């Protein structure tokens, strides 16, 4: 028994080698009686020496074609990976023992629970719970640009992130980019210690929370290391073209009109964008027009643009949250709502 490590340079390579829903990996495991799994962005092969070396040869042959810039689709990959199989450990034992194979020769074959997980990442199941949420997911799947507007707790960010990791998992996009405007929520936080990443983490924490509900922490780290997952402030988007990517702008109500225009014009070939935000919770300076409502007003009705407006009936957090939102929307004793008072 040996184990071989094959470095993978990109998410594209992982998708090509593993195949859709791990088809290639599972068939290769079955045909060569080996175990295949990913760790720290690398492919690991474990099993009988001869079979592992054969699997390594096929994988490196496939990667070689891809790295030379040749077009390799899923069918080509399957042909290369699942070509004439090398003699299995059981067949080799049968030959060396005069045609009699020991019944325990295949005991090293992996159990189903040890097979490499679905694609490079395993996404936990999710679905829309309300009519608006189901419509939101449908539009995200059909439109190049979707706006999700509504109060806190309606699943705007979570469902956008869930759709993004599923698209990444299915090979529909090569990169996931999540961004937020760095705006203090009504407080002056002052100096924050640490490097740039440490200073930005508090602003990006809600995005990581959504990811942690959907995929394992180890996968989040690995995707970031491979530059497949990028979580960055909105200012970092300037001057870029985001092609073949799923791009999410969270807290869109805190963008100015020029910022929103800058973000939306990053849309590149084969990409999809989702913008989320609560128009009632803007942290922009008083008198500054929010880029979110401005963009919806300009773009609503375009063929490839979807807009979903959530309300308190879509809140899926603690049951008390809906009552809290309704209480703050209702007029107070002074005759004004909390939003008007702020």
List the helices and strands and how they pair.
Elements: E1 2-7, H1 11-18, H2 23-32, E2 35-39, E3 42-47, H3 49-67, H4 74-81, H5 89-96, H6 131-142, E4 145-149, H7 156-169, E5 175-180, H8 196-214, H9 217-225, E6 229-233, E7 245-249, H10 257-264, E8 272-277, H11 291-299, E9 305-309, H12 319-329, H13 338-341
Parallel strand pairs: 4-8, 4-9, 5-6, 5-7, 7-8
Antiparallel strand pairs: 1-3, 2-3
Brief overview:
With 342 residues, the chain is of the alpha/beta class.
pLDDT under 50 segments (min length 5)?
84-119, 185-192
Instruction: Give the rounded overall mean pLDDT.
Output: 78
CATH overall fold name of the largest domain: Rossmann fold
Percent strand: 5-15%
User: Strand sequence of the main sheet, in spatial order?
Assistant: 6-5-7-8-4-9
Cα(first) to Cα(last) distance is 68 Å
Helix and strand content put the structural class at alpha/beta
Number of helices: 13
Structure notes:
The protein is of the alpha/beta class and 342 residues long. It has two domains: 113 residues, Ribosomal Protein S8, Chain: A, domain 1, CATH 3.30.1370; 211 residues, P-loop containing nucleotide triphosphate hydrolases (Rossmann fold, 3-Layer(aba) Sandwich). 41% of the residues lie in helices and 14% in strands. The chain is built from 13 helices and nine strands. The strands form two sheets. A six-stranded parallel β-sheet has the order 6-5-7-8-4-9, sandwiched between helices. Strands 1-3-2 form a three-stranded antiparallel β-sheet. α10 links the parallel β7 and β8. α7 packs across α8. The longest helix is centred in the N-terminal third of the chain and has 19 residues. The radius of gyration is 25 Å and the shape is elongated.
């Amino acid at each position: 028994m040996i184990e071989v490590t094959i470095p993978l340079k990109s998410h594209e390579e992982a998708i090509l080698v593993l195949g859709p829903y791990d088809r290639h990996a599972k068939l290769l495991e079955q045909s060569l009686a080996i175990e295949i799994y990913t760790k720290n962005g690398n492919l690991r092969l474990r099993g009988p020496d001869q079979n592992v070396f054969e699997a390594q040869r096929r994988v490196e042959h496939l990667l070689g074609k891809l790295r030379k810039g040749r077009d390799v689709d899923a069918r080509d990959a399957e042909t290369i990976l699942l070509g004439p199989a090398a003699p299995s450990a059981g067949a080799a034992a049968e030959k060396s023992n005069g045609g009699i194979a020991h019944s325990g020769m295949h005991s090293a074959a992996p159990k189903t629970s040890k097979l490499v997980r679905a694609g490079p990442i395993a996404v936990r199941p999710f679905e829309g719970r309300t009519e608006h949420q189901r419509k939101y997911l449908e539009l995200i799947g059909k439109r190049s640009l979707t706006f999700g507007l509504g109060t806190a707790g309606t699943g705007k960010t979570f469902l956008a992130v869930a759709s993004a990791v599923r698209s990444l998992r299915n090979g529909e996009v090569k990169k996931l980019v999540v961004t937020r405007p760095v705006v203090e929520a009504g407080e002056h936080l002052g100096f924050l210690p640490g490097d740039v990443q440490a200073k930005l983490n508090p602003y990006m924490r809600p995005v990581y929370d959504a990811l942690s509900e959907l995929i394992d922490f180890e996968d989040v780290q690995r995707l970031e290391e491979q530059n497949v997952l990028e979580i960055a402030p909105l200012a970092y988007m300037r001057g870029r073209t985001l092609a073949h990517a799923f791009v999410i702008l969270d807290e869109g109500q805190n963008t100015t009109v020029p910022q929103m225009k800058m973000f939306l014009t990053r849309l590149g070939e084969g990409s999809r964008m989702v913008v989320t935000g609560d128009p009632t919770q803007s942290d922009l300076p008083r008198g500054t027009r929010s880029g979110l409502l401005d963009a919806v007003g300009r773009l609503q009705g375009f063929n490839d643009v979807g807009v979903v407006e959530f309300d308190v009936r879509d809140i899926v957090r603690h049951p008390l949250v809906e009552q809290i939102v309704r209480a703050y929307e209702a007029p107070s004793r002074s005759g004004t709502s909390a939003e008007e008072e702020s």
